[in-house]
Amino acid sequence: MAAMRIAITGSAGLIGTALVRSLREPSPDAGGGHDVVRLVRHAPRAADEVRWDPKRQTVDTAGLAGCDAVVHLAGAGVGDHRWTDAYKREIRDSRVLGTAALAEAIASLDTPPRVFVCGSAIGYYGDTGDRRTDESAPPGDDFLARLCVDWEAAAAPAAEANIRTVFARTGLVVGRRGGAWGRLFPLFKLGLGGRLGNGGQYWSFISLHDHIAALRHLVTTDGLTGPVNLTAPEPLTNREVTAAMGRVLHRPTPFPVPAAALRLALGEFADNVLASQRVIPQRLLDTGFTFAHPTVDEAIRAALTE
Q1: Domains in the chain and their CATH numbers?
Q2: Which pLDDT value is given to residue 178?
Q3: Nearest-CA neighbor of 235 among 294, 301, 149, 165?
Q4: Which of 89, 274, 280, 285 is the most exposed place for a label (fewest CB within 10 A)?
């Protein structure tokens, strides 16, 4: 894509860090790379930083002037803490309030960006069992599903201002340096990995490389709006993923974690860990996206080279 000015929230996270690095890399079509603006919650300390406060719903709109695209990735980590009522509010507010503030801010600009890519998650669908699920499926009815519904609804001001709005419904990102998968690598390398619960639940994964490429695809694919699943084409069961981790890392996987132990350790969040989501990236495939790492073995090997 030709050089653009792109604003990003959540730029310090696993995905945000990789996206910023990718966008700034020189390329034949973008020359010296894209101009990236990072929205931060502290007083700006660098020329590329713009202040925003998702809790207070304030955004320095002057810093967004001239942006062609906004990619919104910020939100409290779903698995970072036990799900107390207070932390569930933090998870929800960090997404819903932040999205509303950002959508209203860009809608108010004299020249708004052409596209708003808003983070979401395949948690939208709830537990899908072994049913192949694409973007046409209705939402589930657990905490994460209801959260995703409200999260996406909060972007309405952008869509109403005729900004092309896309929801990146993210699956499990296979990354070594962060996220849920980042916690698995050390355990498996020590030979302490194993299936979770009965291992029959589907995991819809995507390599970090493909996730970044997919986000760029959402930014540049004219006419693409609404939800897009960011997952690899063929989800696998947790049992199959466990076997792949052992195979690629050359380690045994002898230690299954019983469902009861997960619930004791994680509380309510354990139900989401044990839930099955067989989610298919139909709209990515329909718009011509090509996966570099379509299999879990390839995704795991790619993570080891990060």
Answers
A1: 5-304 (3.40.50.720)
A2: 86
A3: 294
A4: 89
